[in-house]
Amino acid sequence: MFDNLTEKLERSFKLLKGEGLITEVNVAETLKEIRRALVDADVNYKIAKTFTDTVKEKAMGQNVVSSVKPGEMMIKIVNDELTALMGGEAEEINISGNPAVILVAGLQGSGKTTFSAKLANYLKSKKGRQPLLVACDIYRPAAIEQLEVLGEQINVPVYTEKENRDPSKIAAESVRHAKKEGHNLVIIDTAGRLAIDEQMMNEIASVKKAVTPHEILFVVDSMTGQDAVNTAAEFNERLDFNGVVLTKLDGDTRGGAALSIRSVVDKPIKFIGTGERMDAIELFHPGRMASRILGMGDIVTLVERAQEQYDEKEARKLHKKIAKNQFNFNDFLQQINQIKKMGNLKDLAGMIPGIGKAMKNLDMDDDAFRGIEAIIKSMTPEERENPAVLNGSRRKRIARGSGTDIQEVNRLVKQFEDTRKMMKKMTGGKGKGAGDLSQMMGNMQMTPRK
């Protein structure tokens, strides 16, 4: 995400030269390039200018200590101001009611239905809620069926009234049904339109009045940039929503919506969607996003994702094996499976400082480990347990069995040995599980998608 913006901002910082003070003279070209980068990313010009004026005010006269270059000082200031521009702190969703009612609104095609299911899955797995999804989109063909399919995937029931053509009555009845069936969370998926119209606004207002939601979330397709921000402003005038959701951040996103929307509607971005999987949803952290935009990675989110897959008992067993140099290909395969559960591979790589930029032009998907897995699964149980027995003839047989060539097998065995040595060194520290995963991913050579 935001690859072009990141690249342009990095270029602008390189323009700042000299030692001592940051002055109006040596900062002018940098600020001009930062403003241009933001406008190119579809940030409103007025917001971009206000942003660079604020950065200039904070930067002017800053003493640059001998160990810090002016460009590095400017990165720190820009990082702080980007964080402030996007809201400063993460804001949690309000689920205090019983049942808590969440109303999901937005234009057609923004990803409301998919987000509704993702949110149900998120609050079920992370907050222990018992959600009920409600299908109030009675216009879009197959919208109800789509929600039912997604609900089945995440094992969450879906409330529907296919004969009822009044969304406000469906919503009100769904809340009564939730109370009766013991659901403490109701998520209402509403209809969208291709553009804002009076009928749409009246309908969503009537649904709001019927259920008095604890939280109204406006879903925005982040790839629509400034148009999304303008739409959000119009919706907010009628709905007074509580927060924004940015979907499709895994696509070709310029960043305008993420950087502008808080300033325009004065409402926080609460969630972002980062892929098609039902677990591809994150609480929005402005500081972490600012770090990603500036190419500095996001280790905190990476570790949090790793910890979700972290099994303490298994980690202790693995730690002992590594310490005794008994880490084998079965363990290697298990670690790969843990990484795959963490989410989109390229997104994960981008969270490791320095790795994301190196992999910018590498098109990777969830099958990036396919060749590695094929090679390991072509080994005998003895070969997986004891890699030392992998002589030339065994490697040739494994190459034939996995549909790869001998060079790929040799490369994997070498990477395995390098990883084993690196992980053995780590046993002297405290890093287990999350550390093993991120270090290992940085050490491996992934296979690009053809």
Short description, anyone?
The protein is of the alpha/beta class.
Please describe the structure with a list of short key phrases separated by commas or semicolons.
single chain, 8 strands, Rossmann fold, 55% helix, alpha/beta, 8-stranded mixed sheet, flat, 434 Repressor (Amino-terminal Domain), disordered C terminus, Four Helix Bundle (Hemerythrin (Met), subunit A), 450 residues
Would you kindly provide a written description of the structure presented here, covering whatever features stand out?
With 450 residues, this protein is an alpha/beta fold. It has three domains: 83 residues, Four Helix Bundle (Hemerythrin (Met), subunit A) (Up-down Bundle), CATH 1.20.120; 186 residues, P-loop containing nucleotide triphosphate hydrolases (Rossmann fold), CATH 3.40.50; 143 residues, 434 Repressor (Amino-terminal Domain). It is built from 21 helices and eight strands. Strands 3-2-4-1-5-6-7-8 form an eight-stranded mixed β-sheet, sandwiched between helices. Helix 2 runs antiparallel to helix 3. The longest helix is centred in the last third of the chain and has 21 residues. The two termini are 21 Å apart.
What's the topology here?
Layout: H1 3-14, H2 24-40, H3 45-59, H4 70-85, E1 100-105, H5 112-127, E2 131-136, H6 143-154, E3 158-159, H7 167-181, E4 185-190, H8 198-211, E5 215-221, H9 226-239, E6 243-247, H10 256-265, E7 269-273, E8 281-283, H11 286-293, H12 299-308, H13 312-323, H14 329-341, H15 345-350, H16 355-358, H17 370-377, H18 381-385, H19 392-402, H20 406-426, H21 434-443
Helix pairs in contact: 1-2, 2-3, 3-4, 4-11, 5-6, 7-8, 9-10, 12-21, 14-21, 17-19, 19-20, 20-21
